[in-house]
Amino acid sequence: MPEFLFNTNRIDTDLPPGSRVLDFIRDDQGLPGTRSACREGDCGACLVLAGSLRDGYLQYLPLNSCLLPLAALQGRHLVSIEGIGTDALNPIQQALVGHGAIQCGYCTPGLVMAITGYFLSAASTSLEDAIHAVSGNLCRCAGYAGIERALAALCGQFELAASPPQQRISDLVGWRILPLYFLDIAGRLRALPAAEGVPDDVPEDDALPIAGGTDLLVQKGDALARQPLHFLPSREDIQLAGQTCRIDASTRIETLRTSALLQTLLPDIGEDFKLICSPAVRQQATLGGNLVNASPIWRYVSWP
Ligand SMILES: Cc1cc2nc3c(=O)[nH]c(=O)nc-3n(C[C@H](O)[C@H](O)[C@H](O)COP(=O)(O)OP(=O)(O)OC[C@H]3O[C@@H](n4cnc5c(N)ncnc54)[C@H](O)[C@@H]3O)c2cc1C
Ligand code: FES
Ligand code: FES
Question: For residue 210, which atom of ligand 1 is closest to its CA?
Answer without folding.
Answer: 30
